[in-house]
Each structure stands twice: as C-alpha cells, then as structure tokens.
Amino acid sequence: MSRQIFLLILFSIAVQAFFRPIYSGGGGEQDCEKTSTSSPSGSTPSASTPSASTPSKITPKYSYTCPKDWNLTTRTPSQFNGQTGFLCTKFITAPASISVNSASELCKKENAALTAFENDEERLKLHDEARKHIITDLKLGSGGVAIAGDRLPQCVTQNRTVLEENMKNPPCNNPKQEYTLPESAHTNAEFLWNSWAPLEPSHDIAGRVSEDCLQMIISSNNRNGKINDIYCTVETFWNYGAYCGKPVDIVTV
Ligand SMILES: *[C@@H]1O[C@H](CO)[C@@H](O)[C@H](O)[C@H]1NC(C)=O
Ligand SMILES: *[C@@H]1O[C@H](CO)[C@@H](O)[C@H](O)[C@H]1NC(C)=O
Asked: Which of 27, 72, 151, 154 could anchor a disulfide with 212, C-beta 3.0 to 4.6 Å?
C-alpha cells in the first residue's frame, strides 16, 4: 500500500468520525442543520490537514447550528458574524400591520434582533418568503417587512427648516451615509445601502414623526424587494413581519 493511499484512508476515517455524530444527533430535516452538513467546508474552518503521526487530532473543531425554525444563512465571514460566515435568520410574520418598533419586539421575544439582508441571494429569499405571506396568504396588494436600520442621530428631525438645511450636505443627504446598522443586526451594510427603492430615502415627516427606520417593500412595481425609509412608531405603514437574526450556536464536534 502506498503512503498516499494510507493517508487517504486515514483521512476518510477522520471525516466519518466528524459526520457521524451530526447525522445521528441531527434531529431530521431542519434547514439549518441540513445546510451545515451539506457544506462541511463552510462549517469547519479549523479542519487541519491529516497527518500520519497524529491521526487523533484530524477531526475539525466546530459546527454551526441554528435553533429549530431558524435558517442558517450564509454570509461572507466578517467581524459582523464573528468570522463564522453564518447568521441564524427568521422572517417572523404578523397577521396585521405593525410598526418597525413592534417588529423589533417580535425579534426580542425570540432572543434576536432586527437584521437586514447582506447579499442578493439573501435579499431574494427574504423577498420570496415575505411575498408569500403578504400577497398569497394575506391577499394584500402590497406590503413591507421591517428590517434593521437607524437614521444617523444628527440627521433626525421633525422640523422641516432643519431638514432642508440637513439635506444640503452629507452625511444626511447621502443614501450611503445617512443610515447606520446597529451592532445587534450583525450585518455588513454595504449591499443594503445600494438597495434603496427609486427616490428613497424620502425623509417624510407626518405630524410629529419622521421616517427614521427601514422596511423592505413587497409590491408589483419597481420598488419591489428594495428598501424604504419608514416611521419607527406608526403601526399602520404596511409592515406584515420582521426580519430577525441572531448569532449561530457554535458546537464543538
Ligand atoms: C428559510 O428556510 C425555509 C425552508 O428552507 C425557506 O422556505 C425560506 O425561504 C427561508 N427563509 C429565508 C428568509 O431565507
Ligand atoms: C425649526 O427650526 C428653525 C431653525 O432652527 C427654528 O427657527 C424654528 O423655530 C423651528 N420650528 C419649530 C416648529 O420648532
């Protein structure tokens, strides 16, 4: 037997040792676990190269999982996701319109926080799930999903004179600078600030409230799947769900 074949056999034993506990303890068809086992390279950042002298140390160290009913969403490894390359996400539905702040409470009840999509694949998945809820199930013509996002404090005003002044200069007049994502969103915002609906953010002011939060629009026009600035506290502005996220559970294997 050549040395190469010997190493190959050793390696396959190590790989089986890694997978077996996940398959037997996995609890079936949960989306997050399925994704985790089907992309071992993404979930085993510490896999070491097999070495004939130390076969017992070949097994990878970590597996990333999400609670039942949460999706293991793939993202680019970054400081926002602790370099794991994953976030647990969930679209929590609301049967009637809620404010962004109320949507945030829905996330908090599940030990999570409002998040936002980080790439186009994630954007489309959220869009599809929200569209099914709002258009197919609730039979509405259009709607929205509350996502994370805060207008910069220095750009928030209910005074139209101040707003006009703000809108003359960056950061308050710059769609890539005037909003920020809280740390709890665990999201790199670069893609998000390129996802505004046409003519948004519009900085509308209604009575004593201004549009300082964010939603994803579900509609049949060119605003569909794009983001819009919206009131944080008004319950009637078309949010029929919340996009929530929380860090993955890191399991030592
Ligand atoms: C979550 O996973 C389910 C089941 O695979 C899928 O139908 C849904 O679109 C996913 N939702 C999001 C927001 O990715
Ligand atoms: C709005 O701001 C301007 C400029 O600071 C100020 O003169 C005015 O009194 C404010 N209006 C209200 C209604 O507070």
From this structure: 151
User: Which atom of ligand 1 lies nearest, measured to the CA of 89?
Assistant: 13
- Confidence (pTM): 0.79
Sign of CA dihedral 29, 35, 41, 45: negative
Q: Which of 202, 199, 239, 241 is nearest to 222 (CA)?
A: 199
| Pairwise CA distance, residues 48 & 53, whole Å | 13
pLDDT tens digits, 140-184: 999 999 999 999 999 999 999 999 999 999 999 999 999 999 999
Does domain 62-252 fall under CATH 3.10.100.10? My reply is yes
Distance between CA 178 and CA 168 in Å, rounded? 12
Ligand nearest to the CA of 119: 1
Residue 207 CA to ligand 2 center (angstroms) comes to: 15
